[in-house]
Design a protein that fits this description.
- The complex is a heterodimer of chains A (265) and B (412).
- With 265 residues, chain A is an alpha/beta fold.
- Chain A has one domain: Alpha-Beta Barrel (TIM Barrel).
- Chain A is built from twelve helices and nine strands.
- A nine-stranded parallel β-sheet of chain A has the order 5-4-3-2-1-9-8-7-6.
- In chain A, strand 6, helix 8 and strand 7 form a beta-alpha-beta unit.
- In chain A, helix 6 packs parallel to helix 7.
- The longest helix of chain A has 20 residues.
- With 412 residues, chain B is α/β, with parallel strands linked by helices.
- Chain B contains 16 helices and 15 strands.
- In chain B, strands 3, 4, 9, 10, 11, 14 and 15 form a seven-stranded mixed β-sheet that branches.
- In chain B, helix 5 links the parallel strand 5 and strand 6.
- In chain B, helix 2 crosses helix 4, helix 4 crosses helix 9 and helix 14 packs across helix 15.
- The longest helix of chain B is centred in the N-terminal third of the chain and has 18 residues.
- The chains are: A alpha/beta (265), B alpha/beta (412).
- At the A-B interface, helix 3, helix 5 and strand 6 of A face helix 1, helix 8 and strand 12 of B.
């Protein structure tokens, strides 16, 4: 199921979609599934399952630490697919966010097939750009999987055209020049980037820039089709590491706050 | 240009997914593509700009001590039963071939109008070279170094600091070189408008492998000329150690068009490839993507990078430059592991026979060459002595039990 459905539904409601991220296997595989399901229950429209990787160059300390914890506990690529299957079963479109080497190692075609079989919608690829992705594009197109590539404030208009032409599902706008992580200040680069992206495509544009509160979500939702939240969810789980029930409750509260935010833009 | 060069997208041996799988490319976040394109453009312009070429040559000559000599190692040759020639990159300013690369990249930085450079370093050699070039050209310099390495190489940390660089210990992941690269890339994403990344080896995303080669290829061009002058013919074989692979590709590039010259790259075999504790990426790794390039990578079944091990911090890297992957896959060059013990034995041997203490990295090349010499008796073997061993005295002290007047003697 493409994420397009979730974006269309949000658009019909006159609001932005809330896209929530957690790495698989954090705090452990089953705990991660439970957390992601709680985020679905509390109002996430799209789920991103992160594939923990040893060398996450685009991630800040919060997501790095969670991924490292997952890897130290022995999380495998197959656990990520199991997580996707469990979350996608809720009917909420679920994509995997992954650095490229684990997919190449698994086998691009085999990964695409197993992801499709698990009910996954597609892939977000932070270190794979369309000009180096012919194998993935072919494997995804053969199975109608979403291909979500990133645009950045430093992207030229030519690059934005090339990238959006290769996207399916939505376009991921990284609206700060920097790694992932919750930020207090909003970015003055985000609005112009979304505008430039819109000129190139009719696809929905999701924005990731370190949103962690409903107010920030409302602000981003005023100009974007989707608000992407990652580090804030990870940090919430991390802050309640000793008490799973409290962690899930806090995760629900955060999701509700963000979901209310995307509705009051 | 030979067929061993990269195409415009940075592919060695054709794009991935073609009938012949390619090596290299650019597997990078979109946020850094503009900076890599900017660097590529500035470099292409510099390559054909005689002013840049002149400035670079002058700097190498008057500041770095280049061209380094080609030295005939008579007593080592007697020991080996082959004629051994050493390319003395250990005599360069800062003690290794790395000064060539950083001076080239720092000059480019000035031309791009950027005021700050960042670098990663393992043992500290590239960090020291970067800090040196930054000091010489008046650039701000930040060096990322794994916390484990800052402890192992405190002397080099002090050198960088004395040269005015900021050294940032990296506490993420395995806290070694690969994590220092990750952290430098994270800095770069956020600072790219005013900062250049001085990449330390001929690896990483396009254009770095080709760009670094263009600055270090003098090693091979000089060695080829010097060998012809000295012996009247080309060597039968050439050899270098391979971590990321910049000194090796610099030497090899001068001889790729000479099919009669055999090429050997010696990787860090650590405790022995069979133990799993090594850094022999080509000998024992698998194809994958690391730090922006498709190459050989030490990785597990799921594509997670595996930690490498070597007594030589400069070879202790789980990836390798993509052009080496291409040379290995195409059969043009042979890559073989050399263990810690073999390298240390060669270090002592070179010290005793020639009065030259090599870097442990370079000692791998000497050890491998001695092995090759057994099958190439009487032939001429040219070895890149990429660095000097001053920085490695702590390791040697421990390995050989040196430092006490009545202590054991190395190599005995």
């Amino acid at each position: 199921m493409s994420v397009a459905i979730a974006f269309e539904k949000a658009r019909a409601d006159g609001r932005a979609a809330l896209v929530g991220y957690l790495p698989a296997g954090f705090p452990d595989v089953d705990g991660g599934i439970e957390a992601l399901r709680a985020m679905v229950d509390a109002g996430c429209d799209v789920i991103e399952v992160g594939l923990p990787y040893s060398d996450p160059v685009m991630d800040g300390p919060t997501i790095q630490a969670a991924a490292q914890q997952a890897l130290e506990q022995g999380v495998r690529t197959t656990d990520v697919l199991r997580t996707v299957e469990a979350v996608a079963a809720t009917g909420t479109p679920t994509v995997v966010m992954t650095y490229w080497n684990p997919v190449e190692r698994y086998g691009v075609d085999r990964f695409a097939q197993d992801l499709a079989d698990a009910g996954g919608a597609g892939l977000i690829t932070p270190d794979l750009t369309p000009d180096f992705a012919p194998e993935w594009v072919a494997a995804a197109d053969a199975r109608d999987l979403d291909k979500i590539f990133l645009v950045a404030p430093s992207s030229t208009d030519e690059r934005i055209a090339l990238t959006t032409a290769a996207c399916r599902g939505f376009v991921y706008a990284t609206a700060v020049m920097g790694v992932t992580g919750a930020r207090d200040a909003t970015s003055d680069l985000a609005g112009p980037l979304v505008e430039r992206t819109r000129r190139a495509t009719d696809l929905p544009v999701g924005v990731g820039l370190g949103v962690s509160t409903g107010d920030q979500a409302a602000e981003v939702a005023s100009y974007a089709d989707g608000v992407i939240v990652g580090s804030a969810f990870v940090r919430t789980l991390h802050d309640h590491a000793g008490d799973r029930a409290a962690g899930l409750a806090a995760l629900r509260r955060l999701t509700e706050d963000l979901a209310a935010g995307v509705r009051r833009a | 240009m030979t067929t061993y060069d990269a195409d415009a997208q940075g592919w060695f041996g054709g794009p991935a997914g073609a009938t012949t799988p390619g090596w290299g490319g650019r597997f990078m976040p979109e946020a850094l593509i503009a900076a890599l394109d900017e660097l590529d453009t500035a470099w292409q312009k510099a390559l054909v700009d005689p002013t840049f070429g002149h400035e670079f040559d002058q700097l190498l000559q008057n500041y770095a001590g280049v061209p380094s000599m080609l030295y005939e190692a008579h007593r080592l040759s007697d020991h080996a039963g082959a004629r051994i020639l050493l390319k003395r990159e250990d005599l360069n300013h800062t003690g290794a071939h790395k000064i060539r690369n950083v001076l080239g990249q720092a000059l480019l930085t000035k031309r791009m109008g950027k005021k700050r450079v960042i670098a990663e370093t393992g043992a500290g050699q590239h960090g020291v070279a970067s800090a040196t070039a930054a000091a010489y050209l008046g650039l701000e310099c930040t060096v990322y170094m794994g916390e484990v390495d800052t402890e192992r190489q405190a002397l080099n940390v002090a050198r960088m600091q004395l040269l005015g660089a900021e050294v940032v210990p990296v506490t993420s992941g395995s806290r070694t070189l690969k994590d220092a690269i990750n952290e430098a890339l994270r800095d770069w994403v956020a600072s790219v408008d005013h900062t250049a990344y001085l990449f330390g080896t001929a690896a990483g995303p396009h254009p770095f492998p080709s760009l670094v080669l263009s600055f270090v290829r003098g090693i091979g061009d000089e060695a080829r000329r010097q060998c012809l002058e000295l012996t009247g013919r080309l060597p039968d074989a050439i050899a270098a150690c391979v971590g990321g692979g910049s000194n090796a590709i610099g030497l090899f590039a001068g001889f790729l068009g000479d099919p009669e010259v055999a090429i050997y790259g010696f990787e860090a075999g650590g405790d022995g490839v069979e133990t799993g504790r090594h850094a022999a990426t080509i000998s024992a790794g698998a194809a994958g993507v690391l730090h922006g390039a498709r190459t050989f990578v030490l990785q597990d079944e799921d594509g997670q990078t595996v930690e490498s091990h070597s007594i030589s911090a400069g070879l202790d890297y789980p990836g390798v430059g993509p052009q080496h992957a291409h040379l290995a896959a195409s059969g043009r060059a042979s890559y073989l592991p050399v263990t810690d013990a073999e390298a240390m034995e060669a270090m002592a041997l070179l010290a005793r026979t020639e009065g030259i203490i090599p870097a442990i990295e370079s000692a791998h090349a000497v050890a491998g060459t001695l092995r090759v010499a057994r099958e190439r008796q009487g032939e001429t073997l040219l070895v890149n002595l990429s660095g000097r061993g001053d920085k490695d005295m702590g390791t040697a002290l421990e390995w050989f039990g040196l430092g006490r007047p009545d202590g054991p003697e190395a190599g005995s």
